[in-house]
Design a protein that fits this description.
The chain is of the alpha+beta class. The chain has one domain: Aminopeptidase (3-Layer(aba) Sandwich), CATH 3.40.630. The protein is 22% helix and 32% strand. It is built from four helices and ten strands; from the N terminus they run βαβββαβαβββββα. The strands form two sheets. Strands 1-2-3-4-5-10-6 form a seven-stranded mixed sheet.
Length: 184
């Protein structure tokens, strides 16, 4: 398996084809994933986060904390954990000031954070509902994705919560993660 930096076209295609949101969302950096036969398997995307306080929440400066925002893979990679692991090693090189990564597993999609557990992330929070989802085009969709639609005609539900995971990239962050980790 190998990775390369991904361009906007690859990131957009991977998200539309292989991610439940169908959108790349916000991102600053993405990696192409190739299997051992050199077949393209999709992309993994990272961003400084939609939350402008993502770094300050952990007593870091902007630019020291990023979010893993999308894993858009077609399943042809041998091990998803290996693909993620390769990007974790590479992002340290590509963003040398980076201290911490944050990611979320969406309970509404049935995600339990298995990939994060397999790659040694720390589970630090489980959240309950945070707003509404709308049933649009045959699936439950975040309110932002249907902002231009008359929502009064759509089925709605309380949005399921998320699991929050942290991945430390230095000793200070590892100590903080150890203190914050929870078991469920």
């Amino acid at each position: 398996m190998r990775i390369t930096k991904a361009n906007k076209k690859a990131l957009t295609h991977a998200c539309k084809q292989y991610h439940y949101t169908g959108s790349p969302g916000t991102y600053q950096l993405g990696y192409n994933i190739y299997n051992n036969d050199d077949e393209w398997c999709g992309c993994i995307l990272y961003a400084f986060g939609a939350n402008p306080h993502i770094a300050s929440n952990y007593n870091y400066n902007n630019g020291e904390v990023m979010e893993l925002t999308r894993m858009c893979l077609n399943g042809k990679q041998e091990y998803t954990s290996q693909a993620l692991g390769l990007t974790l090693k590479q992002i340290k090189k590509d963003v040398p000031n980076l201290k911490l990564l944050v990611s979320y597993a969406d309970k509404g999609q049935g995600h339990q954070g298995t990939i994060y557990k397999a790659t040694n992330w720390y589970l630090v929070e489980e959240t309950d509902s945070s707003g509404l989802d709308y049933f649009y085009k045959g699936k439950w969709t975040h309110a932002r994705m249907v902002s231009n639609i008359d929502k009064s005609k759509l089925k709605k539900r309380n949005k399921p919560g998320k699991y929050k995971f942290l991945y430390p990239l230095d000793k200070k962050a590892r100590k903080m993660c150890e203190e914050l980790k929870i078991n469920i």
